[in-house]
Amino acid sequence: MIFWFRRDLRLSDNRALVEAARRGDGDVVAVFVIDPQLAASVGPARGAYLSETLRALDASLEGQLVLRRGEPSAELAQVARATGARQVIATEDFAPAGRSRDARVRSALASAGITTTFFDSAYVVRPGTVRTKTGTPCKVFTSFRRGWENEEFTEPLGRVAGVNWVRTQSVDVSELSDVVARRRPEYFGALPDDVPHFDSRVGETGAGAILQDFVTRVGSYDETRNLPGVTGTSRLSAHLRFGTLHPRQVLAATNGSTHGAEVFRAEICWREFYADVLLHHPDSTWRELQPAMAHLRVDRDDAAIERFQRWARGETGYPLVDAGMRQLLAEGWMHNRVRMVCASFLVKHLHLDWRWGAQWFMWRLIDGDVASNQHGWQWSAGTGTDASPFHRIFNPTLQAERFDPEGRYVRQYVTELATVAAPQCLQPGAGDGLFAPTGYVAPMIDAATERDDALVRFREAREFARTTSREDGGS
Ligand SMILES: Cc1cc2nc3c(=O)[nH]c(=O)nc-3n(C[C@H](O)[C@H](O)[C@H](O)COP(=O)(O)OP(=O)(O)OC[C@H]3O[C@@H](n4cnc5c(N)ncnc54)[C@H](O)[C@@H]3O)c2cc1C
After folding, report:
1. What's the DSSP call for residue 346?
2. Which residues of 73-91 are buried (b: 16+ CB within 10 A; e: fewer)?
């Protein structure tokens, strides 16, 4: 019996693994396959994080993880031949690329006489389950949340027991980060490709430690989650991304009657909602969920590329935006409030394509997840579900004053402003004028002017969509 690890790199509450052990009478070959096709779009941050996570998994398997590199069906078939296994079990994947890979693997292995079974999911409720009263997929979060809460939530299982891990030929874990030839879009130019300093608490044990720490804070989550200068959120996203923790385990540990626990549960539900939306709309990975918004005029010339790169380097002159983009570069993670502000700034103040920003986030984030990232971006760009309407435009300075009033976050990441007190350190052009020059950049744009331009573009797009739909209707 082969257990094919993918986004479930843990031994506890791994239902597909338990099923593999049951069907294999305890004999299981634990395999992870580095698929060069998929790995080419994994940036250095997530590549390094995955390597560390695989090392931790291998240690918890007492060195018995079989790591292979190549096209998954060919690698799995070889492992099956070497070990005499006739079955492969894996946790079901719901993202578009994963689903088409799994269909290919299942059919290729079937022709070699090997059956492939997909089991469970990386979600509390299997994507595709929740529907509206009329049986259609949910388009908005509130309706999804209602249905999701009505589903049965199963308790997490303990660590799989009584398994005899069967070993065969394997490659070294370092192959993942060192060997893969990455595909970088041209507009990244010379943007950095270094590995960020992420939390060293990786793997299942690391996830457990972070969860235990958060359990003591979840009661105040509702008050602190929007403050980037405070450790208010769980910091569990990369663990949920790689499945070193299942959301069942997270909900069981944080379950409580506080308002904080309730608000936190809603955030876990957002993750499930976006997976559901992506399942029903696989095109929404790169296409606007609201077709009318595809007509929004965006800039793509050399000056636009230059603006994109300044944004990505955290050199816009807007302190909260720059702090967020520098946190992303330094840690491979960014606070949710700041993700929203940075995304809005790229689309609505710099007039760039949301896909450019989404691609950069995916490149740098250790928690980069196609459903949450693409739909987080679509939400911010006003093109997605529950779209925060395009014309509601975050003012980056007011956001800083509201959510980082003491400038703790800004001063931590924009080191040029480390000694400038709030509220001055939150202003565009901070460091110039009233203060001794700090070396911090002048604002690259005037937010009020660009906001007006964004609204003009929005009206044009809406008008264009209205006219063309009228013409289509008449033809
Ligand atoms: C533009 C943009 C891009 C994003 N890209 C990603 C991404 O690639 N991967 C990712 O996991 N999240 C993404 N998010 C959602 C959110 O920012 C992160 O999940 C969160 O910041 C992770 O930190 P945390 O674990 O401390 O979150 P917490 O606040 O502690 O939340 C707990 C968990 O709930 C889930 N969650 C929370 N907020 C959201 C949300 N808005 N949408 C979906 N799931 C959520 C995450 O799994 C998170 O770990 C994005 C949001 C935006 C606005």
Report:
1. I
2. bebbbebbeebebebbbbb
Helix (H), strand (E) counts: the chain: 20, 6
Ligand 1 atom nearest the C-alpha of 377 is 1
Query: Which of 41, 214, 262, 267 to mutate for ligand 1's pocket (most ligand atoms within 8 Å of CB)?
Result: 267
The rounded Å distance from CA 239 to ligand 1 centre is 11
Kindly give the distance from the C-alpha atom of residue 336 to the centroid of ligand 1, in angstroms, as a whole number: 6
Distance 2 CA to ligand 1 centre (A): 32
Closest-CA residue to 339 (of 318, 358, 317): 358
How far, in Å, are 84, 87, 173, 234 from residue 170 at the CA level?
A: 16, 19, 9, 35
- Atom 5 (ligand 1) nearest CA: 373
Q: What is the DSSP string of 271-295?
A: HHHHHHHHHH-GGGGTS-SSGGGGG
The Å distance, Cα 338 to ligand 1 centre, comes to 11
Spatial distance between the Cα atoms of 318 and 447, rounded to a whole number of angstroms: 9
pLDDT in the model for residue 475: 38
Q: Is the CB of 276 under 6 A from ligand 1?
A: no
pLDDT (tens digit, 9 = 90+) per residue, 15-43? Answer: 999 999 999 998 999 999 999 888 888 88
Chain centroid to Cα 201, Å, comes to 18
CA of 339 to the centre of ligand 1 (A): 9
446-471 pLDDT, tens digit per residue, is 999 999 999 999 999 988 888 887 66
Q: Which domains does the chain have, with CATH numbers?
A: 1-120 (3.40.50.620), 123-156+204-280 (1.25.40.80), 291-467 (1.10.579.10)
Residue 92 tokens read as 């079901």
| Structure-token match 């690698």, residue found | 75
